[in-house]
Structure formats: structure tokens, C-alpha cells
Write a structure and sequence with these properties.
This protein has 237 residues and is an alpha+beta fold. The protein contains eight helices and eight strands; from the N terminus they run ααβαβαβαβββαββαα. Strands 7-6-1-3-2-8 form a six-stranded mixed beta sheet, with helices on one face. A two-stranded antiparallel sheet has the order 4-5. The longest helix is centred in the C-terminal third of the chain and has 17 residues.
């Protein structure tokens, strides 16, 4: 069964009164973001090199997608699944926690506008809590694990170095548990998951857990925040 008490049972509730009531008892992890040091080592942004891609898993993909849709230099952010097979890349199956998949977001970005290191800094600072093992906020299970699926050897080296740097710095009270490995495959999620935070801003789960992430992006990374998100299926609306 999917472990989404707010996300599943109150999907149709939009009233602010309900949101306010839930907020009083909701996990505060999303609101506790803070700016962390940038990576000492970053990937090169070679002129004419084109767009780059990384797949990031940090709990429910709705919030991670929303953060990067509001990040300057990101050209596309797609919710989906990584870590398992094509046959099991379906929400109801992934929610069992037995497929090897993590809910993930494929982030495509222009390194001349936002570097890979900045993408990582945002990921570790506002998109999720990298010290939580197999969970984020109210969501529990390996499908909500913290993971980075890299697409180049350079990205892998930068990621490993940054995690080591952050662990040495003591910026977190607990060790980072993010798993890092080469991307084998990414499978886009069902259409109804795409642009979910944008389409359902007052849905209680979004309002409590994901809206604060976007607000923290604006607060902590104002130079990289854009008010109008880059959208997928909602682009024509």
C-alpha cells in the first residue's frame, strides 16, 4: 500500500481551513531548509557543450519536480522512476517499495546558466533532507530514498566530492545517506503526476510539504529562482 496518508486520502480537499488544520501536525522538514556551502569542485560548462541531464531522487517526486521547474537554467523537469525495470515502472507497483525504483526527477539544464554544482546544492539544501534514510517527511519506504543517478563520469566525481565535503563540514547533524550511481534508465511517470504541484497548489500534501520547498528556493537561491515555472503537460494551459 502506498504510504501517503495526506497525499492519497485527502487528494480532493482544497479548503484552506483543512490545510490550516493539517499544517499544525504536519512534518516540518520542508520548512527547515538552510543554505549550505557550494561544491568546491564543479563540472565544467564548456561553450557549445549543450544541455546536461541528471536524475535526482529525494522523496515524493511532486516536490522535487516543482523545485527544479522554478530553477533558472532548467529546461525540463520530468517526474518518473529509476532503479528498477521498465515492467515495474508504474506508480501503484512502485508504491509497494519492492521494485527497486525510486520516485525520481529527470532534470535537464543549461550548464552555462546553472552549473551542475548548483543543481546539487539546491538538491541537498531545499529539495529534500539527504540525511533521512528511505523516507522523506510523511513518506516511508525505499521508493522515497535519497539518490543521484549520474549521466557522466564528471558528474559522478563532482557528486562524490561534494558529499564528502558536506560530511566533513558538519553542516548536517547526521551523515548524508544519498546513494550515487550511474543512470541505467529513467521511466517517466504517468501524466497525472506531471506538473502536479503547479496544477494542485492547494492540495493539502502539496501545500504542507512541497510549497515550502519552492518558497525556500526563492529565499535561499533568489538569483536562480524564476517565478514562472517550466512546465510539461500544463504548458498549454
Amino acid at each position: 500500500m502506498p504510504l501517503h496518508p495526506i497525499r492519497n486520502s485527502l487528494a480532493g480537499a482544497f479548503a484552506l481551513a483543512v490545510v490550516a488544520g493539517l499544517a499544525a501536525t504536519a512534518p516540518a522538514a520542508a520548512e527547515q531548509a538552510f543554505k549550505i556551502p557550494p561544491p568546491a569542485m564543479d563540472a565544467a560548462a564548456n561553450a557549445g557543450a549543450g544541455l546536461q541531464t541528471v536524475v535526482l531522487a529525494g522523496g515524493c517526486f511532486w516536490g522535487v519536480q516543482a523545485v527544479y521547474q522554478h530553477t533558472e537554467g532548467v529546461t525540463k523537469a520530468v517526474s518518473g522512476y529509476s532503479g528498477g525495470t521498465k515492467e515495474t515502472a508504474q506508480y501503484e507497483i512502485v508504491s509497494s517499495g519492492r521494485t527497486g525504483h525510486a520516485e525520481a526527477v529527470e532534470v535537464t539544464f543549461d550548464p552555462k546558466i546553472v552549473s551542475y554544482g548548483k543543481i546539487l546544492q539546491i538538491f541537498f539544501s531545499v529539495a529534500h533532507d539527504p540525511t533521512q534514510l528511505d523516507r522523506q517527511g510523511p513518506d516511508i519506504g525505499p521508493q522515497y530514498r535519497s539518490a543521484i543517478f549520474t549521466t557522466t563520469a564528471e558528474h559522478k566525481a563532482v557528486t562524490d566530492a561534494y558529499i564528502a565535503q558536506l560530511n566533513r563540514s558538519g553542516v548536517y547533524k547526521r551523515p548524508i545517506v544519498t546513494k550515487v550511481g550511474a543512470l541505467e534508465a529513467f521511466y517517466p511517470a504517468e501524466d497525472y503526476h506531471q506538473d502536479y504541484a503547479y496544477l494542485h497548489p492547494m492540495q493539502p500534501y502539496i501545500y504542507i510539504n512541497d510549497r515550502p520547498k519552492v518558497e525556500n528556493l526563492k529565499r535561499l537561491f533568489g538569483d536562480l529562482y524564476r517565478e514562472k515555472p517550466v512546465l510539461l503537460r500544463a504548458a498549454a494551459r
